[in-house]
Amino acid sequence: MYPRIRRHRHLLILPVFLLLLGLSFLRAPRAVLGSLPAPLGEFRDASVVQWEQGRAFLDDGSRFSPEEVVPSLTEGSALMFGEGLFTVRAGETELQGLSGAFHVTVRASAVTVAALTAPVLARSGSGMMLIPPGMQWRTQGAIATLEEGSTTWFADHTLKSIPTHFLREKLIALDQLYSPREEQVWEKMRSRGQLALVLKPLTLPQARERIEEHRSDAFLAQLQAAVRQGQTVRAALLLQDPELSALLALPQEREFFARIVVAAAEDLRLLTPLLQYLDRDPTLWLLAGLHPALRERIQATQAQPKLPAEETIVALLVLPQSDVLSKPLPAMLLEAWAERFKEAVWGRTDAAQLLQGFAVTLTDLAQRQWRQEYPQRALELTRALLVVAERYPTFLSGADRERLDRILRGDMVAIVPQEEVFEEMPKSEEEAQTSAFAPQEVERLAYELLRDSGALFTVETSITASAADTALVRGVIFSSAGGDHTYDCTLNVQTHEVSQIVKDGSMLPNALSLGAFVVWVGR
What we know:
Layout: H1 30-33, E1 47-50, E2 54-58, E3 63-65, E4 72-90, E5 93-107, E6 110-115, E7 120-124, E8 127-131, E9 135-140, H2 150-156, E10 159-161, H3 164-177, H4 181-199, H5 205-228, H6 232-239, H7 242-248, H8 254-263, H9 268-278, H10 282-288, H11 295-300, H12 309-318, H13 331-345, H14 351-371, H15 375-391, H16 398-409, H17 429-433, H18 439-452, E11 462-465, E12 470-480, E13 483-492, E14 497-503, E15 506-507, E16 512-513, H19 514-521
Antiparallel strand pairs: 1-2, 2-4, 3-4, 4-5, 5-6, 5-7, 6-9, 7-8, 9-10, 11-12, 12-13, 13-14, 14-15, 14-16
Helix pairs in contact: 4-5, 5-6, 6-9, 12-13, 13-15, 14-15, 14-16, 15-16
């Protein structure tokens, strides 16, 4: 009756396939792209700068120096894209990304990073921060360390969600940055390596050092080809070669290894033998643990590197906040996270302050997840926090525990969340004009939202547009443990608020988010 469309709520969440290398905005879901402006829109006057590790899409007036040892943005904004592990400097902050893109703005001493498709590790002074895809972070000067006190530390380690309109525009521009450059690099490496294998017996000793470099390229290119073609046995045999193992351990092959790990992410048989090398590089491990293609594999592995206390606590704070992808964090990873967190704070002199800061940050997160119609994520995080509270009874304040109990009971009243913004990022005129829907679109969206939520329809069911974003729903049926019940309601297809709820002829007083409504009717 109605064609299937993507659910509008995914404006609040970053679809995982947009986070993979090879992104194409032409494949993006309707809910993310909506009515898009012409490709590049405001980016037409921007310039693309390329260096060995990646590319930068610079806003007009930005100052960027790609020729430095570490490319540097000293003023303005840029969309950064890199393959494998890549590093740039923004003001006084060093940023490292892994296979994807992030946006960075430098204004005087303030640096704002929006991790679009790549996780980012930021370092400034003695402190560090991790920014997972779908989140943004801001710093002004050196990042506080735990030694400087928990109040300053949590202030400097605050993540916010990326505004939807900003994310959408940058993903369009990102498509212009991707090119088959990597294929050209690998083809060049492969041909040089093959030539080296032929020429080595014929060369004089003084030329053999250069030939050895080409031969190393050949080994690496063979591994790269095996991974890309899914040749598990061949890749495993290559990884058993002592010469190749030694090559992968070299600092200069760090970028190559990062690319290989990301390329092997979809095949556990290929990824597993590579993970033995990952614990040699804590930076790469931290980033891989937040990369959309690798997060679940890396976080589930038992062979985790020994990290400094600062990096351990940051990673523990950020992991639950990375749960903004279309595929949620598995419950088992949150359970493992709770156990690691309990051990990490045990015996610390600042344990009470850390427990309080984590409790406030993550209880707020669980509440936002519930209100943004992701009740299952909120429930899993709530359960993990309660596991921590079993070990540390003072972990949760009375107010925090009450908020979590309300999530467990499923009686949270919906409050449509406002997007969190560090900088003023106004919506485009075109987006403002397309925020309202035609009546047929309202009815179709309402039908799809209800159908995907498990509603049943009969000949008595009616869905009628009553405003530019609201539908009147009559006679829709939901099943529960106590049997089937008929509901009337008003559904806002933009905010997903369900109001004026009538159950079997009786009016209910509260408005709920659609997610909370579905949990409630199923009880």
